[in-house]
Amino acid sequence: MAYVCSDCGADTLKWAGKCPECGQWGTLVEFRESRSKSGGKKGKTRPATVKKVDISKDKGKNSVRMKSGIGEFDNVLGGGFVGGEVVLMSGEPGIGKSTLLLQVALSLAQGKKVLYVSAEESVDQLESRIRRLIGKKSVKFQDNLLIVDDIEIEPVIKLIEDEKPALVIVDSIQAVRSQDSESYPGSIPQVRICGGLITNTAKSLGIPVVIVGQINKGGRIAGPKILEHMVDCVVYFEGDEFNTYRILRSIKNRFGTTNEIGVFEMGGGGLAEVGNPSKAFLDENNELVVGSSIGAVVRGSRVIFVEIQALTIERDVEGVPLRRVANGIKKQRLDMICAVLSKRGGVYLGNNEVYLNVVGGFNIDEPVIDLAVCAAIKSAVKDKANSRDEVFVGEVGLTGQVRSFINLQKIVKEAKKLGFKKIHAAPAGGKSESLVSAVKSIRSL
Ligand code: TYD
Ligand code: MG
Description:
Elements: E1 2-5, E2 11-12, E3 28-31, H1 71-77, E4 86-91, H2 97-108, E5 114-118, H3 123-134, E6 145-148, H4 153-163, E7 167-171, H5 188-205, E8 209-214, H6 226-230, E9 233-239, E10 245-253, E11 261-267, E12 270-273, H7 277-281, E13 292-299, E14 302-314, E15 324-327, H8 331-344, E16 352-358, H9 370-382, E17 390-392, E18 395-396, E19 401-403, H10 408-417, E20 422-424, E21 433-434, H11 435-440, E22 443-444
Parallel strand pairs: 4-8, 4-9, 5-6, 5-7, 7-8, 15-16, 17-20
Antiparallel strand pairs: 1-2, 1-3, 9-10, 10-11, 11-12, 13-14, 14-16, 18-19, 19-21, 20-22
Bound molecules: thymidine-5'-diphosphate (TYD) and magnesium ion.
């Protein structure tokens, strides 16, 4: 007998109140592996087949991609679906997973057969959503879009084998169940068995499948970690509940890079592709107000310009901890930047509360945004606005040096296109620059 953590999917032989892997309390549940047909008895072992690798000819398996027709989505996959590819899509409830996948299904169904397994919503609910998505457009999909709201996986697998659709969508893995397990849908054994059955079917028939996976409170995909290992591609759909912009990014991709992102805007008629994300993340106002700056990040083939806003408040009450709030970058990063600014950047923040926000609900982990954060905070403290024509680019180290950025040329090219006039950055070519001079120094584009 073994125990499995229902939160992170770790296995352990001994029961404990706390998961040894993720440290959550009360999440270990009993898990019985089903016995093999031979009952564990030793029999004659079938020899494994050795296959030769031949790279002399390009069989073109991975180069033939099936495009969904939704460019931002195809980009994230690496140019469309590869035959037999299994994609796991996760994201917070209500972020738009079902909406996006239904749009993908409708787009493909105009020429190809698509199976949508709606285990969470009834066909009636899906129909009203389709009506909303299509609106007044005349879209012909009726014969090609097959919808089932069966939650049992075996009949669904049979249907896939019979119909051989071009794409299968399973919404969601936590809502389907197999006859082979008595556990409830969403439990570890069920997710394991259903995930395995779907993956095998996709591989054996060469049909791409998208599986929706819910996430738990910690932000991880609920169910065993093995699900992430089983699939070829894991994409994450994120956004902020107060904002209409949504970002699709891949965390794992066996058939492409994990750098590309897709940007969408949720509106009355579903998700619209956002071709120029910088427009979405820059505040509409022409002039920058005190406390803002513009930074840039490179994601895959794209450069995205973002506005950073900072607010600082001086406190002279002793013994009360100063607040530092970061929205869109990590709080630890903000703390570090404040420390560097105080010690090496000539902007003392020892008495200041600092609030920081990345406009548009964009989350940035890349350190290249550091200099823009410094510029926004400095502007707030000195009460002097930055110019809208300037971009701040570079990672700030503990020594107060700004490192030159490897993709600076890409940013410079894109910045010119968007009409920026000046850039603050350590010059390309490896030399770093002091923070004070990087913020001060301006180069014309
Ligand atoms: P949904 O796709 O159901 O999210 P998920 O499958 O990730 O749980 O998204 C539902 C939200 O999207 C819901 O709050 C309503 C909103 N929505 C729109 O704003 N416009 C639309 O055209 C549609 C279909 C949904
Ligand atoms: Mg849904």
